[in-house]
Amino acid sequence: MEFVANIDGMELVYKKPQTLTDTPMHYCPGCGHGVVHKILMEVINEIGIQEETIGVAPVGCSVFAYDYMNIDMQEAAHGRATAVATGIRRVLPNKYIFSYQGDGDLAAIGTGETIHTVNRGENILMLFINNGIYGMTGGQMAPTSLIGMKTSTTPFGREASKMGNPIKITELIAQLPGAYFVTRHSVHNTAAVRKLKKAIEVSFKYQKEKKGTCFIEVVSNCPSNWKMTPVESNQWLEKNMFPFYPLGDIKVPKS
Amino acid sequence: MANEKGTSETRLMKGNEALAEAAFRAGMNAYFGYPITPQSEIMEYLAFEAPKHPDVVILQAESELAAINMVYGASGAGARSMISSSGLGISLMQECLSYMTCAQLPALIVNVQRGGPGLGTIQPSQGDYFQAVKGGGHGDYHLIVLAPASVQEMVDFVFDAFRLSEKYRNPAMILTDGAIGQMMEKVTLPAVGSLPKIETPWATTGKSHTRERNIITSLYIQAERMEKHNLILQAKYIQMQKEVRWEEIRTNDATIILVAFGLTSRICEKTVDLAREKGLKVGLLRPITLYPFPTSVIAKLAKSAEAFLTVEMNAGQMVEDVRLAVDGKRPVDFYGRMGGMIPSPEEILGQLEMIAEKLQAVPVLKE
User: I want to staple B108 with a disulfide (CB 3.0 to 4.6 A). Which of A52, B82, B112, B326 is the partner?
Assistant: First the structure.
């Protein structure tokens, strides 16, 4: 049975952007990925760069990003998204290019690529989704897992003496001269979503002006692997993740 | 300089530098690399000549891993792309080469081999044969592999490798070694623009409103789709077999056939002369493409010749493919040096004399 909504005579307040495909997303209920995908595609639609944008998807939960984003995309090997983005950037100097990576991809196996891509000041947008866990493989420790955090590979909690400390990769890359705009956001409430949307918009503006690397971290949740309801996961996020990964701009262009 | 465009020219050049100049002339759009002996001259030459080619991307990456993934990105965006390295660096690239074959991306991969395993030596070797022709990374795939035996072929095969890799949308490798990379010979360089640019409607250049979005991926999570994609790739490898190339020297009346590729084939050419002077009927089969491999040519020679001797600068790698081709019909011996050592024509002649003695002791029946 097909459900057809009768919207005759009603005011249209929101429409799915044509930059999103009709493919139902595979993300778990309450996961931040779907929201980030949506607002990224909204921005691309609103500023009218669908035909000029190439995205790079990672290995991890967002490995299928290209199923949902109605733009040209490349799927990179684990950790190599920004190397792939560099290759595209260098041969297509006037297009808009973004990479989309999780914490394991960007801050563990791809650390070398992350640092050197920013150090070269590659004129791309790097979107970094940090939920402190490996989601796709079933909840193992991530480089950004907090101390004491229980994961499937740290069942008794992460201990700094054995497993090292969570890495603040965003603060780290902000030190590099190639980083033009570095900021940390979240999507746990509507106000936060609006702020992230603005950051994405301004990043594409900087990209058009060929300013260098724009880097946006999104501190996000993983209800399934954190073993919480979506609401609980957002509360846990505020209480535990934000104190260690404080939201806000880390490096802004000198005006 | 005056000949930069339009015409071919003859120069005395080092193998690595000739290959790099050929890449410019073959219309390469992008090169990504990482320094490693004995092939660093390739990127050095490209960097030095770069001002003459302002539209060509030349980028030194932070690692071979990053460099090959830059090739993936550039090739996926429709650029004629290239990378070069030696054994260790090529090992690091294997994951991405597997991705590229699955995602059907063309590119030129150059391996100027050095002695291994491990950190090994910087001296020439042919120890990466298995890695080059059997896939090298995970899953079922092949690279197209060309083995030059001269500086001239270092030039010519750049054009052939780009052409074949683009025709089949599969990476192609030039498998050479430190000796050919470092030696100087006279070469004729083809004119700039003599390799036409191909159409790349599959490339990610921005989704125009006139077409569906392009996706470069090697991920097919459903088993049925992954098998179907594998069957498409395998059908392509069957198609590639017709690209097989080889060279035969005095095989017509040969009793013993030497089989050798690259540098060792040149040494074996000298051995054929020495053997003939001694009255031994020796010929040489030189596979030019290592994948596809001239299996049927060897099978045919196994009908006329009485024995084979495969000579390689490794512990015996191509000899396995020669034995598969000969299929037990004739004895196939192997002689090899390793670790950067190069066999002399006289050493190989000694091996031939031993085989000839054995053949006289045990006459082989002609089919």
Answer: B82
